[in-house]
Write a structure and sequence with these properties.
By secondary structure, the protein is α/β, with parallel strands linked by helices. It has a single domain (about 5-305), classed as Alpha/Beta hydrolase fold, catalytic domain (Rossmann fold, 3-Layer(aba) Sandwich). The chain contains ten helices and ten strands. It has an eight-stranded mixed β-sheet, with helices on both faces. A two-stranded antiparallel sheet has the order 1-6.
């Protein structure tokens, strides 16, 4: 598998991102997954997972909140994003490979008693792993995401409030000659990102060769029952339909694609009952618009006040 690593100088002096880099080798080829690891190593971890086409920079305002609450905060860059290695062929990316790559990091760090915080593709990967590694996870906080199982009632394409918007985005990511990463982040964020923030989102991608993972993600969303990811997602839903641990939704009020999916999660997962589900102000990237509020929900989920 051929891959590229973004030159380190692309990440020099990024605004509000002072975190020391850590790397995990995902295989023997030299491909690595980057992750932020802040706070006490012996504390219960908060695992924050980004989606498309962002990276751990998305959580920069939330990491200090977790650390101040005396929690270990682990924020990976998914393979193909951020400071992680980037396979150059779209065919090298699959839903299962993304799950396997992240599973390797969780096991290498031996993370347990995890609070999962996830959004977008971070939800598709994180929720699958939370179900398959149920003993390692203590609580879940989801914003603007879900776990598709190919059914209208289970977050399949027919269940999307705005399926046309998703299909338009899918086509754009596949065929548009250049993928304008920072412009996409701004388009799906309500507040205006400044020049340094836009630079940070473009930093992982010096040119189009580095964007195969970003182009692949929309095509990997399992939107029909025939998708190869669906059987394992349905197995994961069997776990969640008996999940009694805290499960909190914190969707934004400005994301047309995922709007309404929070109610499906609340209705199907026992651990969601009685939780203070919240609608935050913001676009798809609610971490940019309501990051502090999102972070406070994460450190307090399940009634543990810090």
């Amino acid at each position: 598998m051929e891959f590229l690593d973004t030159p380190d100088d692309r990440f020099r002096n990024l605004k509000d991102y002072p975190f020391e880099p850590h790397f995990h080798a995902v295989d023997s080829s030299g491909m690595r997954m980057h992750y932020v690891d802040e706070g006490p190593l012996d504390a219960a971890p908060i695992l924050m997972l980004h989606g498309e086409p962002s990276w751990s920079y998305l959580y920069r305002s939330m990491i200090p909140v977790g650390v101040a609450a005396r929690r270990r905060v682990v924020v990976p860059d998914l393979i193909g994003f951020g400071k992680s290695s980037k396979p150059t062929a779209r065919a090298d990316y699959s839903y299962q490979r993304h799950c396997d790559w992240l599973l390797g990091l969780i096991e290498a760090l031996d993370l347990r008693d995890i609070t999962l915080v996830c959004q977008d593709w971070g939800s598709l990967i994180g929720l699958r792993l939370a179900a398959e590694l149920e003993d390692r996870f203590a609580a879940v906080v989801v914003g603007n995401g879900g776990l598709p199982d190919g059914n209208a009632a289970g977050l399949g394409l027919r269940g999307l409030p705005n399926a046309l918007a998703f299909l338009t985005w899918r086509t754009f990511a596949r065929f548009w000659p250049t993928l304008p990463i920072s412009s996409l982040l701004q388009f799906a964020t309500q507040r205006t990102l400044d020049a340094e923030e836009l630079r940070a989102y473009d930093a992982p991608f010096p040119d189009e060769r580095y964007k195969a993972g970003a182009r692949a993600f929309p095509l990997l969303v399992p939107i029909t029952s025939r998708d190869p990811a669906i059987p394992r997602n349905r197995k994961a839903w069997e776990v969640f339909e008996g999940w009694e641990k805290p499960f909190l939704t914190a969707f934004s009020d400005g994301d047309p694609i995922t709007r309404g999916m929070d109610r499906i999660l609340q209705e199907r997962i026992p651990g969601a009952r009685g939780q203070p589900h919240t609608t935050l102000s913001g676009g798809h990237f609610l971490q940019e618009d309501s990051g502090l509020e999102f972070a406070k929900l994460a450190v307090n989920v399940g009634g543990v006040r810090t």
